[in-house]
Amino acid sequence: MVFNPFRGLFSNDMAIDLGTANTLIYVKGQGIVCNEPSVVAVAREGRNGRRRVVAVGAEAKSMLGRTPESITAVRPMKDGVITDFEIAEQMLRQFIRKVQNRRSLVRPRIIICVPHGITEVEKRAVRESAESAGAREVYLIEEPMAAAIGAGLPITEPCGSMILDLGGGTAEIAVISLKGIVYSRSIRVGGDKLDEAIINYVKRRYNILVGERTAEQIKISVGTAVPTGENLSIEVKGRDIIHGVPSSAVVTEDEIRHVLLEPLNHILELIRVALEKTPPELAADIIDRGITLTGGGALLRNLDKLISQETNLPVVLVEDPISAVVIGSGAVLDQLEVLRDVIIQ
After folding, report:
1. CATH topology for 146-189+267-318?
2. I need a labelling partner for 295 at 20 to 30 A (CA). Which of 44, 93, 167, 316 fits?
3. DSSP symbol at 108
């Protein structure tokens, strides 16, 4: 194989999963090259309060709840869409620059994943953010479709595939057949809502105030949808809201499981409605194939078991649920002529 010093200077097209919790970037020919939290640390400067980006990604997330008054850790995405246009653009620009490593001579074509049912205004915000961040052309693909492609489902065939993508801000379910979405619906219940439920419980039960990072750690350590039989527990440290001093408590998996029941019931209801709305012929396919789970929220212990128990259907958790959406988008990028139909205008 002859080494080509110019390879990579031109072929820099990329797919971006701009998620509420994490941003993943897939570069054509290289695979996933970036997986960072969608967090930006911002400092306010001058009399007009102009915002300056101090850090992005993992570095910024480590600052959550630990910044001085002059610095704020901001999440520019909420419920799967951009809520802070300026900061989202800065975050994208820094991620793209980091990925390209200043070696590219040509601005990249970019495919960005968006929730199904996104409004025209939200589409425009995503496109403009990517263009301002350095994109030459911007394509959009709906997350359920990207997740289905990334999970290896037969989206081009005349058979029904059901995908449930659980992200940080939303839970999206879709039935896909012949490269089209037959039915889709999303609710604003994701990993963030689970964290929020944990924060509220610890505050109410133990009078301890904890932040987002601690709540996420509790969810990862002892969170479960059905009992594990291991009696998991974790020591939680935070601020006593009555006395204002540092305090700690031991929280068990049973406690957290009951706390997570309410948001998980919303997800189960989403699945039930989708099954009711699915055309009969495709429903028969889903009985055989079951439901495919993707997204970071799908990593909650035993969630697949809970869904299977409630629906009496097989549930398949993909090998790498966090990366499924960006891998699917990357596959579209690699086969743009074949899969152009799945791109939305």
Report:
1. Nucleotidyltransferase; domain 5 (3.30.420)
2. 93
3. P
